[in-house]
């Protein structure tokens, strides 16, 4: 099922484009809207119909869509509510053309619509926030979109518990979790949508797409039989409407089902039926998705030329590969299939495109993370200045208050000499206490400065180490790795044309050794700068690290508990290096056959526990200058953490507690 990885992101993009689903009986729907604009006399009804017509044609006929949009606006010039609606539908029109214009329109729509307190306004506000999150997705990422959904979009309509709009919002949220491989969460929100829609909208297009989303959630887990029952329910809803554009989505999910069953001919049949609808309704992105699956089948059938030409047509058409991650995957597939065909030069060329784009995407991700950290730092700095000003204000008020008390004592000195003595004594004690407190504060400031200097030094050392690791990893992967890969491809091509495998077994053994050497070199490069950490986060990277150290006589049980994805890249990298060193020490020195690694997080505290059943060691025998433990202690100290080591002849247990807030 790994080959569905590219398609699942496209499926999400496609579903998120369809924010306002039209009925399955599209002809009756369009006819009814056209009757409204032809027969109705009031401008509000006509404007609403023109807005819906604009939204319907926005992907198939942009000129007609724009015309209907502006007609609706002109009808509502004197109506503030129609004018507010205009910006939502303008955002819809720009959604697939200009993300920045779409985002600006959606935000303007939320601002104007919030002035009206009615059900329709709240539904449109919810959709506007949803549209804004989609428009910003490529810039801010999926966590931002999910946050918009949970904090802005869904709360606006959550009070309308039986609304089909709420059911649809839950379906869209489930689809985001499916994309992020959080299938259980996706199932939970799909079930919420199902409960609303089966009861309150049993023949709706919203329910149809909910059935398809539930089915696809199972298909991406390779649970074809569980998804099939929901696919059948969707089929019953769409069967009466053979002319509906929604048929293309049904056949797409049917394609996924046959892929899980590895039925190639049935898959091709479903693809061709789906392509009929996508071409009829100009659904360009979905057309390219079908071609991706067709390529996979052709490759399995060893029809390499057809498969390669199909990939090139996808690249040339551009709809699918606007997304850089999809383009990277297409490059990799073109390199792979050309290598199989013996086209060495072309395979190397596509491999270079893939490597260059991978580096570019990694750099973009790091830049985005740096920008987020900078914004976070600026916000914290402003808050610190405000807090400082407030403290200064309170201090001045306290000084004024003290002066008032002092003047009051002086005015009473002639009458109450004893009271004056008592007041002076009290003032002396207060001044003495204040002096002591100032001394304590001064010492604390000195301590803080020393700690900051130590942290700055540690940070510089650690960052220098990581930069050097990254440089070496790039040199190995892009330089020596590329050269060895080229040698391997050249040998493969030459041997397939000049040698007989049965007569030259020694040569092929050497070729296998070369192949293992290339793999080992790439393992070393990934170990120096873990690509899975940059692309998929800490939990996935740690799981890959455990798999890397697992041996035939050694099992590693990795237990992640509530690891937050919002951790900064710098903090994730420090945690990764600590655990990498701990695992390396355990594998190298303990002689254990079982290792338990548990990582958990509670708010800003990250816990690491590693246990093995090896021979143990005497704690005091660890040399202070030992490179491995010194690196661990440096990173633990930098994260203001603490480490506890317990070891005897039955094994070793190490517990580490780290602070994950920004230093």
Walkthrough of the structure:
The chain crosses the membrane at residues 405-428. Pfam families: HATPase_c (PF02518), HisKA_3 (PF07730). It catalyses: ATP + protein L-histidine = ADP + protein N-phospho-L-histidine. Its EC number is 2.7.13.3. Keywords: ATP-binding, Coiled coil, Kinase, Membrane, Nucleotide-binding, Phosphoprotein, Transferase, Transmembrane, Transmembrane helix, Two-component regulatory system. The chain is an alpha+beta fold and 663 residues long. It folds into 3 domains: 2-261, Serine Threonine Protein Phosphatase 5, Tetratricopeptide repeat (Alpha Horseshoe); 438-529; 534-659, Histidine kinase-like ATPase, C-terminal domain (Heat Shock Protein 90). The chain contains 25 helices and 5 strands. It has helices at residues 5-17, 26-39, 43-57, 62-75, 80-94, 99-113, 119-135, 137-140, 142-157, 164-179, 183-200, 205-219, 224-238, 247-260, 264-280, 284-300, 304-317, 324-341, 344-411, 417-498, 505-528, 531-536, 538-549, 569-590, 627-638; strands spanning 555-561, 594-602, 605-612, 642-648, 651-659. The chain has a 5-stranded mixed β-sheet, covered by helices on one side. A hairpin with a 2-residue loop joins β2 (594-602) and β3. The radius of gyration is 32 Å and the shape is flat. The protein starts with a helix and ends with a strand.
Features of the shown structure:
6% strand, flat, single chain, 5 strands, phosphoprotein, five-stranded mixed beta sheet, 25 helices, disordered N terminus, Sensor_HK_TwoCompSys, alpha+beta, 3 domains, Heat Shock Protein 90, 663 residues, Serine Threonine Protein Phosphatase 5, Tetratricopeptide repeat, transmembrane
